[in-house]
Write a structure and sequence with these properties.
alpha/beta, 2-enoyl-CoA Hydratase, Chain A, domain 1, Lyase 2-enoyl-coa Hydratase, Chain  A, domain 2, 2 domains, 6-stranded mixed beta sheet, 4-stranded mixed beta sheet, binds coenzyme A
Amino acid sequence: MELTTIKMEIEEPLGLVTIHRPDKLNALNSAVRQELMNAVDELAQRDEVRVAILSGAGPKAFVAGADVSEFASRTPGEQRALYDRRRVYDALADFPKPLICAVHGYCLGGGSELALACDLRVADRTARFSQAEIRLGLIPGAGGTQRLARLVGPGQAMRLALTGDMIDAEEAYRIGLVEFLVDEGEHLVRARELAERMARWSPVALRLAKRSIRATMETPLSAGLELEKELFLAAFSSEDGREGVQAFVDKRDPEFKGR
Ligand code: COA
């Protein structure tokens, strides 16, 4: 797979995806979106990859938003056609393994929406967030009203989407937009530590736990609890589930195989 705007590395058990357009602050153009989708599809298939991390290259930004110059030349019909296709944000949200976003610098508009589509966010102290679309006469169109409101609550989502204000990492942490706030330059190191802690566990259990928690965005509690029960039973019936329980009884470390 040829990649020109992103980098993908596998350092078992981790898959590392870096958006690599630093001269444009990693702004999301069509190539980045397509290549990101290709990369996560590839990482989904690779059994040796148990957890993935998404980050941005260069000193200034995770992602400074959608590529505004592409917006300028696109007709409404073309924009709709793009929306009708598979979208990178959904590809990230549906990625069947844990996906951690490591954020530094600008994380604006579509960049913030990429972070929202990941499972966890680790931000260093340089991170700056905004849903800046309102400044362009637009609204967030890729989760910045929906996933954002579900993560930080409708009040904070209103405040961010209606003002377009930029908030710093400390405030993003305070309102729950990121789960980890770390020292400058430590975002990738800490994301890796987190990923490695998860990667010890059964890939089956990781996948099922992620699916169950993601379902809370779509389902009422009773339906969610039903789903959780079924997914628990799937974990319970998996080889890894049997192995984990047996290893505990035998007082040894489990050997999870992803089955
Ligand atoms: N789309 C396209 N190009 C972008 C971009 C975006 N969202 N964000 C930055 N770039 C480009 C700049 O045009 C510039 O390119 P050039 O060197 O060819 O002129 C390059 O990235 C560096 O950005 P620059 O503006 O010089 O950096 P800065 O440090 O002075 O300012 C920002 C940083 C983030 C404040 C500023 O780039 C900005 O406002 N970007 C747009 C943010 C935005 O509106 N995002 C989309 C919301 S929907």
